[in-house]
Specification:
Helix content: 25-40%
Cofactor: a divalent metal cation
Number of strands: 7
Structural class: alpha+beta
Order of helices and strands: EEEEHHHEHEHE
Strand order of the largest sheet: 4-1-7-5-6
Distance between the termini: 10 Å
Number of domains: 1
Shape: globular
Family: Belongs to the IspF family.
Pfam families: YgbB
EC number: 4.6.1.12
CATH superfamily: 2-C-methyl-D-erythritol 2,4-cyclodiphosphate synthase
Largest sheet: 5 strands, mixed
Radius of gyration: 15 Å
Catalytic activity: 4-CDP-2-C-methyl-D-erythritol 2-phosphate = 2-C-methyl-D-erythritol 2,4-cyclic diphosphate + CMP
Length: about 160
């Protein structure tokens, strides 16, 4: 059986935080505010996987009221979500994602993001798409108040593939 999930996440940009996207620390004057490292790209992928499994969202699995997740790398959260996926007899077949940010320019970091995501999900880099766009200075992303990400994930039963 094939299943599809969609994920979305957004966090506010603030001074005094590191900017981490796709598990890559990106040099920038601001970072994303959140309980974990606030990696919106990985959070949206987690939500897409959990949605495909009908298991709710990342906040249910890793609540911001739990100190164990304070400052945690979202690569570890994605690894845990992937373990849950595998334990239910599925694997990720494809990830398609987009990060919406006016600044900074993210293209130089795409290859490492794809490597990080594919490594954690135990799939080929060719099964992971990471894209970037701006909003031409419209909305909270365009005004550089925050960054958002969306992801769609296709999963399939392991014995079928």
């Amino acid at each position: 059986m094939l299943r599809v999930g969609i994920g979305y996440d957004a966090h506010r940009l603030v001074e005094g935080r590191k900017l981490v996207l796709g598990g890559v620390e990106i040099p920038y004057s601001k970072g994303l505010l959140g309980h974990s490292d606030a990696d919106v790209l990985l959070h949206s992928i987690c939500d897409a996987i959990l949605g495909a499994l009908s298991l709710g969202d990342i906040g249910e699995l890793f609540p911001d009221t739990d100190e164990r997740f304070k400052g945690i790398s979202s690569l570890l959260l994605l690894k845990e979500v992937n373990s849950t996926l595998k334990s239910r007899g599925y694997k990720v077949l494809n990830v398609d994602s987009v990060v919406v940010a006016q600044k900074p320019k993210l293209k130089p970091y795409r290859e490492q993001m794809v490597k990080n995501i594919s490594s954690v999900l135990d799939i080929l880099p060719s099964q992971v798409s990471v894209k970037f766009t701006t909003t031409e200075s419209m909305g909270f992303e365009g005004k550089e108040e925050g960054i958002s990400a969306q992801a769609v994930v296709l999963i399939g039963e392991v014995e079928k593939w």
